[in-house]
Amino acid sequence: MKLVVQRVSQAKVTRVSDGVVTGEIGNGLFVLVGFKKGDSEKDVEVLAGKLSKLRVMSDKEDKMNLSIGDVSGEMLVVSQFTLYADTSSGNRPSFIGAEEPEKAKKLYNIFIEKLKSEKIKVQTGSFGDYMLIDATLDGPVTILY
């Protein structure tokens, strides 16, 4: 399982097929999540727990010292199978290491529910759909898990 976590002042995801905005946040974290073959519910629970406590939000002295919950921030979580692109041979990436869509969707939904159980306000993308993402990075702060 991989996460790309970016601190944002705003972020929005729009599904291309119908123009519907599926998720939109203000101050918070924009999170891309990818699942590889063999990832488990335990992996999801561990990373959701770490993410919910990640201290990258600014305190009064502008130091990264607070978690998303400390600042009443939000998360926008988008599934991103391309995080498991293998570019080791040729110029066209292979995605053979990415989890199958049905299992990945199940893990994605568990991830979202675990974050919500941590009292975090969570918005989502549209799993498996082509989306447009608009985000204003804050910092910039980008953390890889």
What does it look like?
With 145 residues, this protein is of the alpha/beta class. The protein has a single domain, classed as D-tyrosyl-tRNA(Tyr) deacylase (D-tyrosyl-trna(Tyr) Deacylase, Chain: A). The chain is built from 2 helices and 8 strands, in the order βββαβββαββ. It has helices at residues 41-53, 101-117; strands at 2-15, 21-25, 28-34, 57-58, 64-66, 74-79, 121-124, 131-144. Strands 1, 2, 3, 6, 7 and 8 form a 6-stranded mixed beta sheet that branches. The protein has a two-stranded antiparallel sheet with strand order 4-5. Helix 1 runs parallel beside helix 2 (101-117). The protein is globular and about 45 Å long. The mean pLDDT is 97.
Compose a concise summary of this entry.
With 145 residues, the chain is an alpha/beta fold. The chain contains 2 helices and 8 strands; from the N terminus they run E-E-E-H-E-E-E-H-E-E. The chain has a single domain, classed as D-tyrosyl-tRNA(Tyr) deacylase (D-tyrosyl-trna(Tyr) Deacylase, Chain: A, 3-Layer(bba) Sandwich).
